[in-house]
Automatic annotation (TrEMBL):
Belongs to the complex I subunit 2 family. It comes from the Eukaryota. The chain crosses the membrane at residues 7-23, 59-81, 87-110, 131-153, 173-192, 197-215, 235-256, 268-293, 313-330. Its EC number is 7.1.1.2. It is found in: Mitochondrion inner membrane. Keywords: Electron transport, Membrane, Mitochondrion, Mitochondrion inner membrane, NAD, Respiratory chain, Translocase, Transmembrane, Transmembrane helix, Transport, Ubiquinone. This is NADH-ubiquinone oxidoreductase chain 2. Coiled coil: none annotated. GO terms for biological process: mitochondrial electron transport, NADH to ubiquinone. The keyword NAD applies. Its main location: mitochondrion. One of its GO terms (molecular function) is NADH dehydrogenase (ubiquinone) activity. It catalyses: a ubiquinone + NADH + 5 H(+)(in) = a ubiquinol + NAD(+) + 4 H(+)(out).
């Protein structure tokens, strides 16, 4: 849980203000300023978790080096006397954004940091903290060679799928799942940037109620998740369906943006990258099913009553995030 201090309102105000400055900026300097304001406001939020001091230092150092690479490449554009070769500038810029977005092969810091922080900061790190780097990636994607973006997207999808197969901690599991989803986000960014943003938005919608539930029950590993089956079956089923939605199982919400991305990629004849993206999603589906099926094998089918007075908000939030409510409104 987060510890609130007298300075917490100021920190959260600067945290969100930095993102708004970066999104609304029309110059590289203000974009970088919003990014750094967001970063330095997020460090005390990480420190508010009683067990995340080491993770805060690790996150700060990694983001510091990535910001140095970013500002060095930008200065080579803005200041003629600070001139470096275009090849080195492109490498520094790419490594910086890949590190901030936890895209493979610059993803190694992400699971270790995510495993040592609270669920609230996990949610912020997997969603809000990636908005500004994703915006920068969308802005520069027309100038990047397609084969580089496609290679990074395929590697991220495979690394996320394979890395999560032997994980028993839920935070590490969601960390590798986030790496896989960033591969899907990156795959369409050069062809249809708004589709990339829509995919990330759908991922955030699915993730929010899931993290909220894991925070409410204070779950850490799979065994604790299994214990929920014995005393609160409805929420256990909703958590399982939410995990399956993250893996892209139809007809849940997580399936439809992946389906649309594959349709656009097939129209552009990018069949090889589509194959690696689907293969990475199958690995992700496998480790989610391997987490769910041990308790499903013990399942009986009694009548289940849900206490709507205590949990109606979370229940309807789950329905919305899983795509059940939009389907009901259609029919």
């Amino acid at each position: 849980m987060l510890k609130l201090f007298p300075s917490s309102p100021l920190l959260f105000s600067c945290f969100f203000l930095g993102t708004l400055i970066a999104i609304s900026s029309s110059h590289w300097f203000f974009l970088w300023f919003g990014l750094e304001l967001n970063l330095f406001s997020f460090i005390p939020i990480l420190l508010s978790s009683s067990y995340s001091f080491e993770a805060s230092i690790k996150y700060f150092l990694i983001q510091l080096f990535s910001s140095l690479m970013l500002i060095s490449s930008v200065l080579s554009i803005l200041i003629p006397s600070f001139k470096i070769s275009n090849f080195i500038m492109m490498i520094l810029f790419s490594l910086s954004l890949m590190t901030k977005l936890s895209i493979a092969p610059c993803h190694f810091w992400f699971p270790s940091v995510l495993s040592s922080i609270s669920w609230t900061t996990c949610l912020l790190l997997m969603t809000w903290q990636k908005l500004i780097p994703l915006l920068i990636m969308i802005l520069i994607s027309p100038f990047y060679p397609l084969f580089i973006i496609f290679f990074l997207a395929s590697v991220s999808s495979m690394v996320g799928g394979l890395g999560g197969m032997n994980q028993s901690q839920l935070r590490n599991l969601l960390a590798y799942s986030s790496i896989s989803h960033m591969g899907w986000t990156l795959s369409i960014i050069s062809i249809l940037p708004m589709m990339s943003f829509m995919y990330f938005f759908c991922y955030s919608i699915i993730l929010f109620p899931l993290i909220y539930t894991l925070l409410s029950f204070n779950f850490i590993n799979n065994k604790q998740l299994f214990s929920l089956f014995s005393f609160n079956k409805p929420f256990y089923f909703l958590i399982c369906i939410s995990f399956l939605s993250l893996s892209g199982l139809p007809p849940l919400l997580g399936f439809f943006p992946k389906w649309m991305i594959l349709m656009y990629l097939s129209k552009c004849n990018f069949f090889l990258m589509s194959f690696f993206l689907i293969l990475g999603s199958l690995f992700t589906l496998f480790f989610y099913l391997s987490m769910i099926f041990p308790s499903m094998s013990l399942m009986k089918m009694p009548s289940i009553s849900l206490n709507f007075k205590a949990s109606s908000f979370l229940f309807w939030l789950f329905l919305f995030s899983l795509g059940i409510l939009p389907v009901l409104t259609i029919f």
